Amino acid sequence: MVNVIGGGLAGTEAAYQLVKRGISVKLFEMRPKNNTPAHTTENLAELVCSNSLGSKELASAQGLLKEELKMMGSLLIPLAEKAQVPAGGALAVDREEFSLLVTEALEKEPLLEIIREEVSEIPQGPTIIATGPLTSDTLATSLAEFLGDEYLHFYDAAAPIVTKDSLDESNGFWASRYGKGSGEYFNAPLNKEEYEIFYEALTSAESANKHAFEEKAFFEGCMPIEEIARRGFDTLRFGPLKPVGLIDSKTGKEPYAVVQLRQDDREGRLYNLVGFQTSLKWGEQKRVFSLIPALKEAEFVRLGVMHRNTFINAPRSLLPTFQVKKRGDLFLAGQLTGVEGYVESIASGLLAGVNLSRLQQSKELIVLPETTLLGALPRYITSASTENFQPMNANFGLLPLPQEKIRPKAKRKEFYANRSLRDLGEFIGEKELLQN
Question: Where do you find CATH 2.40.30.260 in the chain?
């Protein structure tokens, strides 16, 4: 019997990898007895920020990582595909359906017991801690004391969601960037004057948590939109409001700036503001975002929220097998380890689950080839500089360069994908990873 603490993306994937290999698991999830500021249901694997798991294309790091996970027998990626909603080249899901599918799948596993209670101290015996960015204070303190390392943290901000029927479609257009997909995104353009008004209102709006801003402890990958704006007048136009690759069907031209909205539920009733993570006060959010012409009458069903994200100094504390250096039967997974992103969290959970099962079966623990993202990402987070360590997404920059230069960039990405899938397939066969 092993313990898995945390019923998020990493914890549920880890638990599944263990039970499919014949290992009995106690999966601890503190909700609904102890809720968090970001969760709204008691289901497992609830998505609390975006509903997108990133690109589906093999020529992208996110798409390649998903394919690697499917080759490794992931539970969550196929369920995400089952719950997907239209999003062009991205894998976006109906949040409720996805978390329900994961919960139902695990509840059917005879070797898995789901225990709804908070774990406040590190248990004895083989354990995976995958409590994520919202780790309870008591367990975080226990883990920090055990590791002897001061925790790092930043603040993660979720984007608002509006109803589709409240959008002013006369002031927007439907299209996917560069014509990819079938025009699933609603685009709310702004001309220069409208952008100036929006920019001034955004940068002068009041935040809900001034102390958080004083710390300047944000992670670049999930920066609140108002913080991006404060870096300069055009930063939004080169970031979340970039118009590149979008042509307004009404004018035949590229807008000065554009806000994209992506479908958030299967029925297409809800849309989230892409890249609009924010920690503005709720009243300020409605005031400022309603200055966007297509959102002037928008009905906000969820406003942006800001929550703490906690992660360890992985290079000091963790092995690339996701074992804690100080205790061989203790594994960590998810954003707690310093991987950043939904699919990356799933990946860490899968690898921690596979390795703990191999430890229980007295088999050699594995680190996948460095030519794969599943191998390169844990290598990076456990070998990066210990000074000012920051979380890392999956990206092609983590992979070894080709022996010869490959141009153009599209061909190089194709090379990375083909090499990765070839090497992973060979490694799976050699190590018999898909056998119990």
Answer: 161-304
What's 2-154+309-431's CATH class?
A: alpha beta
- Please answer whether residues 116 and 129 qualify as being in contact, where contact means their C-beta atoms are separated by less than 8 angstroms: no
Count the Cβ atoms, other than its own, within 10 Å of residue 341. 24
Tell me: the pLDDT tens digits for 239-248?
999 999 999 9
- pLDDT tens column, 114-141: 999 999 999 999 999 999 877 888 998 8
The share of the chain scoring above pLDDT 70, in percent, equals 92
What's the burial of 13, exposed, middle or buried (CB within 10 Å: 0-12/13-18/19+)? buried
Supply the CATH classification number for the domain 161-304.
Answer: 2.40.30.260
CA atoms within 13 Å, Cβ hemisphere of 223:
14
CATH 3.50.50.60 in the chain is located at: 2-154+309-431
Q: Which residues of 391-410 are buried (b: 16+ CB within 10 A; e: fewer)?
A: bbbbebebbeeeeeeeeeee
Q: Give the orientation angle of helix 342-360 with respect to helix 373-383, to 10 degrees.
A: 90
Cβ–Cβ < 8 Å for 198, 291 = yes
Q: CB within 8 A of 301, min separation 6: which ones? A: 161, 162, 163, 270
